[in-house]
Amino acid sequence: MIVIKSIREMQSISESARKSNRIIGFVPTMGYFHDGHLSLMKIARPKCDLLVVSIFVNPIQFGVNEDFSKYPRDIKRDKELCESVNVDIVFIPNECEIFPPDFSTKVEIAGRVTECLCSAFRPGHFSGVATIVAKLFNIIKPHFSVFGQKDAQQLVVIKKMVKELNSPVEIVAGATVREQDGLAMSSRNEYLTPEHRQVAPVLYKSLLRAKDLLILGQKDTSVIISEIRKFIDSNGPFKIQYIEILNADTLESIASAKGKIIIALAAFLGKTRLIDNIVVEL
Ligand code: PAF
User: What is the structure's pLDDT at 157?
Assistant: First the structure.
């Protein structure tokens, strides 16, 4: 495994890999790995000849009052974990090289996919994500890239960007990896106090209860949303940001559940913001 910091060097390795018909797989990350990240690398590994993982805490996807400066980092451990799953290249670019002082390009994905879920609470977030992902795709030139279903809206936004910009990158989704008690793995779980960590799985439980209601025949999404809300409110000190039931591919709102739907939510426990979702096929 090698570690590359320079954009030029990364580009030239990718160019020669492509010339010799080697398949490049790519997992973009912000580091501080947990099993969720490793599962994305394990999905990519058998599908490619050159597996590249980037570690870059992207400043432009954090809002002014968000956790950019305290976002957890442990590059030494991350490199060891990459090695353990046979990553070929860890790309750790410098912030100044990625975003020089005069940098001014923005990738904006407009429309429904950035008008729902997290968008209202994290203005500019998806533009920040799309901009860095577009840059990383240009540098690494992957044939495919793996993104976690945990960040469901990000996945839909990136799929739309790739389609509309005709980027020759296949987007592969990796299932959400959960702790034994159901809490979706996230680097931000680190922020939870022991008391909050204990109640955090209530969010996933609420999604499973909603799925049961759907399977039992309840189609009215407003009824299901209000059941989820009641369950969460009565089982912990959560501050709910949103609970939405949408078409899983387009993120259009739906009044009556049918087809492939996503039930997604975001809530604060203290200062920690948690998101989770499940996809249900009806
Ligand atoms: O999902 C993440 O960790 C980030 O949003 C990503 C895709 C690495 C872009 O910074």
Answer: 98
As a residue count, the chain comes to 282
Distance 259 CA to ligand 1 centre (A): 28
Assigned CATH topology for domain 2-174:
Rossmann fold (3.40.50)
Question: At CB < 8 A and 24+ separation, what contacts does 249-255 make?
Answer: 249/156, 250/112, 250/113, 250/156, 251/112, 251/113, 251/116, 251/117, 251/153, 251/156, 252/112, 253/116, 254/221, 255/220, 255/221, 255/222
| Residue 260 confidence (pLDDT) | 98
User: Is the pTM here over 0.85, yes or no?
Assistant: yes
What's the CATH class of domain 187-276?
alpha beta
Q: 28 alpha carbon to ligand 1 midpoint, in Å? A: 6
Strand extents, DSSP E, 209-269: 238-247, 260-269
